[in-house]
Structures are given as C-alpha cells and as structure tokens.
Amino acid sequence: MGKQALLLVIGYSLIFLMTGAMMSNSTVDAFRNAMDYYEGNIVRDIAISGANMGANYIFVNRPLMNSNPWWNGWTNPIKLNGGTFTVAMDSVKDMYGNWGRIRMTTTAHYDTSTYSVTVLFHPSQFSKFCMYAGAMDGVYFEPQDSVFGPCHIDKTLNYGNTGGGIMTGGAYFGGKVTTKNGIAALTNPAMLPTFAQGREDGVSIPLSLNTAQLVAEAGGNMFKGSDGDLWVTLKDDSVAWKRSQTGPVTTQAITQIAPNGVLAIDKGTLYIQGQLSTRLTVASLRTSGSTGGTVIVKDNVTYKTDPRVDPLCHAMLGVVGYGSISIDTTGAHNNFTVQGSLYSQTDGVQVVNWNSRPRGNLYVLGGWIGTQIFATSNGTTTGLPVNVTYDERFRVDAPPYFPGTNGYEILAWYE
Amino acid sequence: MGLQTIVDLIGSAVIFGWLFLITITASSANREDFQVSQGELLCQQNLVELTKLLEYDFRKIGYCKEPDRLPNPTLAVLLADSSRIKFLTDLDLDGTGPDGFVDSLYYYLGPPGVAGAGNNPRVRILYRVVNNQPAAGSSLGITNFRLTYYTRFNDTLVTPVAQADLQKIFSIQISMSVENMIASAVVETAPQNTQYQSAFWQQRRLSSRNYQNR
Questions:
Q1: Which site among A174, A213, A377, B102 is 20 to 30 Å from B161 CA-CA?
Q2: CB contact under 8 A, B68 and A393
C-alpha cells in the first residue's frame, strides 16, 4: 500500500507539473502576443511622432526654398517614449522625371521592433486651388454658387443671398476651405454655406509671384513690351506668335521658344487663345514700372484632349499675369472654355463688358487665383456666368514654374 | 489468507480506486483548463493577426507611391457598407514595396458557417480581394466585422454610404469579434455559446493620413 500511495503521489506530481508547465507556457504566449501588439503600437507611435516632428521642421525651415539650406534630417537617434527614431531625407523626382520633391523616411526602434514612415513632400503651388481670392470686397458666395475643389480666401469669406426670401441651402464647397479671417454673412437673411471637406480659419497664404524666376526660366526668349504686345495662338506643341494684331506670324515649337516651359512678356499685354498638347506657362510680367503685365484671353484656350477623360493627357497650362486676366471675347461667340490655372498677382479674372456684352457661359477647367473676385455677369441678361471645374491633376502637379506658396505640402504618407 | 487480509485488500483497492479517480478527474480538469487557455490564446493570436492586417491596409486608403496617379485621395473609397468596403490604394504585391500603380482592395464578410473550419456555426470568412483577382480569405474565427463611417464633423454616415457621400468619410470605426473555430467541448453542461472562447477588438477612429492630406 505504501508503494502504491507513493506511486500515486508521484503520478499526481507529474500530472500537475506537466499541466502547470503547459499552462505557464500558454500564459507566457498570451502575454507575448499582447506585448507584441503593444510594442507594435508603441514603435508605430514613435515613428509617427518622429515623422510629425520632421514634417514640422520642413514646414518651418523650408529647405531649398528662398535660398534656405538643405536639411539632412536627424541621423543621430533621438530618444522618445522608451525608443528612438531617426529621420533621413532624400530628394526625388516625380513620375515625369522632374526634381523638386522631398522624401522623408522616419525609422523608429523600440525594444526589438522597428517601424518606418515615409512621407513625400512637394513645393506647394497656387495651382492647387480651384478658387483663391486675396479678398472678397463687397462680393459674396450666393446659395447657387459651388466650388468643387480647394478654396482659400486670404481675408474673410463672404456669403449672402441677393434675392433674400426662403433658401434651401447655402453655397456649396466640395473641397477643403481655408480662410484667414473666417466667414461673414453680408446679407440678412443668409444661409450658412456647406463645407463638405471642412473649413480651417487662421490660415494665411499671400499671393507670391516670383517674377525673377519666371524671367530666368523664359531666358533669352523673353519678349519685351517695348516691342509691342504679344499675340499667342497655341497649336498643340507649337505656338504661333505675333507682336501686333495684324503683324507677321511666326510659328515655333514650344521646346524651341520655351525650352523650360515658360513663355513670357515683360511690361506688355499677352493675348492668348488656341489648343495645347504639352506643358506650358504663359506669363505677362512687370519687372519694373507701372504698365503692362496684363493678359487677355481672346478665344477658347483648351487642351488637345480633355484630361478628365484622357488619362494620358499631360498637357497643363498656367496663365500668369502681374495685372488682370481679362476675358475679352466680344465679337466671337458667347460660350467659352478656358482650360488651365489662371493667376493674377495684383488683380483678378475679369470679363470685359460683363454688364453689357451678350450673355453666354464661361467654362473653366483648372483654377481661378487672384487678389480679388469680380462679377462676371449681371445675373440675368448680360455677361458670362462662370463654371469653374477643378482639374484634379493640380492637387499634385502644376504647370512649369507656376507661382508657389513658399511652403511644402504632404503628397503621400506611407506606413 | 485470513479475513483481515481480505479486508485490507478490499480497503486498499477502494482507496486506490478513489485516489485513481481523483487523479483522472484532476488530469481531466487540468486538460480542460489547458484547452480553454489554449483556445483563448489562439483566439487572441488570431485577433491580433487580423487587427494588424486591417490596420496595415486601412491606413493606406488613398495612398499611391506616385501621387500623380491618385491625385484626389478623397475619391479613394469606392464602396462603404456596414460589413464591406472597397477602396483604392497602392499595395506591395511582390514584397518589394508599392509599385506606384493604383490597386483596389475589397473587404467583405462571408455568410456564417465555413466548411472545414471546425464546429462553430458562427464563424465566417473575411474576404480580401485585390484588384480583380479571385476572392481569397481566411476565417481565423471571425464572427463579426462591422464598419461605421464618420464625417470630419464626427457625424455618423448611414450605411450603405451613398455614392455622393463617400467623399465625406473622414474616419472609420472597425469592430471585430473572433471566436474559436473548435469548441472546448469538455464543458458539456455549459450553454452552447459559451463553449467557444471569444475576443473583441474595436478601432475607435481609424483615419488614413492620405485620405485627408489634401
């Protein structure tokens, strides 16, 4: 009996030892599983924090902009929350081979875990806006107005309702809206606009035309206003130009007359129309003095194929004016299309004789950027009501040397 | 062999049998506890794997290595329903990193009951469809997969989210339950639904940085 009891006790002990060990392993595995997930979260948080700090450095110090020096990142590990992170910087090309983008890679370590976040930046340009106004003096968005793209008002965004009475909804903003001074109702009653992608106030992005850069990129082919105005007709990948309305026409390939993609006149007026199949910025500049720098659109300005339906369309037009950009198409037809981003440094886009010319329509595919927003029709019988459709490509791309906002923005965030 | 000896033998046999039964019972109880513990471990490991996969994919909504090919990330969500979502992203298809071309990713939950997946009738398959490839998915014991969509103003969007409202999606709440595919059947007296270990996970507000960066 003694032996049997001893065997039973030994058997008991073995069973409990074995199951105890298995239970212990199971508990350890469960703990390890939880810790694995926890560590993953911690190392990810460290990497994201590092990426945010790096992005902040880039936003504040703007490497390679305005003669700022390049930034090499933080190559020595920085301690954070029990782990470390480093930031590496790299200059990269876009898919068309153009330089200017920055890739920032943040690598975090925590215990045995590693996590990387890669952020792609590019210089922010005004063409990213569907609608930009330095101010809205006496002008407001009405309930039937809509903007389907990024919008910025560098003062107060005004809204109102001319007719008064019952309104079912305010103006509609389909893209993100930023303002410097918030919004204000200019009429009573007025319906609050809809900001589908949100609104952020306190953001100031003043217009910034880098005339010297456009002069440099136009190079020796820069036209002088003292020799007359510049009449340009776009012909796919060529331009036909003349120095007066009745002057002799010269046709040149864009690669020849604007090898850097910038065709410019200084202290004169630029007249433009035609069809484009490549990338071009036409500019009317004013390097000094008080005259010139204006642009007049004489007829349709379109791409050879519509980028909304043709994914292979790489044509991109920027129209830059120091002064006003006028739609002066009286005597032609009444429905017009302008495809490109329109930028006016000191004025805005205007329709000539908007309150007396025959009524028609102006369709813009691109953006509308200026110091002011002007009325384009009298609302009933004259002028050109405007339909501005945003060219989605402008979110990540821009016409050559289009004016920049002097800042970077994030294009892609990979983790 | 006297009477005393016979009594001793019977007594010792009874005591031995009693001790032996205790040993068997203890062993059985230990095995049951171990199975339950292992079941919970398996359940939690499956949940963590599913969670990692979902977080990995969902954080890339609207991402493309070449942003020019996906200029407006707010158009990246193509379909949004309570248990299915389809979106555009740039996947690492060959292990060398994203290739710069836009892919579509479609998650949806299959019906209850999975052939060959044990005896849990509630288990489903969470399908993950890349581009137009055949639907593929593993069960890992998922029984519930629920998506709730929020605007940037924290308003809940009604599912299925209307086409016109897809761009309003700002963040996503993911709720998921995982159960063991095979019951810890030794608890025969327990109600049917307590035989399976379960774990629940919820990501309160998951928002892809790409989806809101412009």
A1: B102
A2: yes
Distance set, CA A242 to CA A270, A348, A373 (Å): 10, 25, 31
Q: Reduce the DSSP state of residue A13 to 3 states and report it.
A: helix
The whole-angstrom distance between residue A138's C-alpha and the CA centroid of its chain comes to 27
Q: Which residues of A touch B88 (CB under 8 A)?
A: none
Contact residues on chain B for A37, CB-CB shorter than 8 A:
48, 51-52
d(CA A366, CA B81): 33
Task: Outline where chain B has alpha helix (H).
Answer: 3-58
Closest partner residue to A23 (CB to CB) among B8, B26, B34 is: B34
Residues of A in contact with B30 (CB under 8 A): 15-16, 19, 23
Structure tokens, A409: 């923005």
pLDDT digit string (tens) for B44-101?
889 999 999 999 999 999 999 988 888 888 889 999 999 999 999 999 988 888 999 9
The verdict on a CB contact (< 8 Å) between B44 and A411 is no
Pairing outcome for strands B84-89 and B77-80: antiparallel
Give the number of other CB atoms < 10 A from CB of residue B124. 21
Count the Cβ atoms, other than its own, within 10 Å of residue B18: 10
Strand, helix or coil at A108? strand
CA separation (Å) from A94 to A385, A402, B66, B152? 37, 16, 7, 30
Contact B214 A196 (CB under 8 A): no
Cα A46 from Cα A41, distance rounded (Å): 9
Q: How far is CA A356 from the centre of its chain?
A: 35
Tokens of B196: 């399976």
Supply the ipTM of this predicted assembly: 0.83
What's the helix, strand, coil split of chain A in %, to 5? 20, 40, 40
pLDDT at B184: 66
pLDDT in tens, A271-320: 999 999 999 999 999 999 999 999 999 999 999 999 988 878 889 999 99
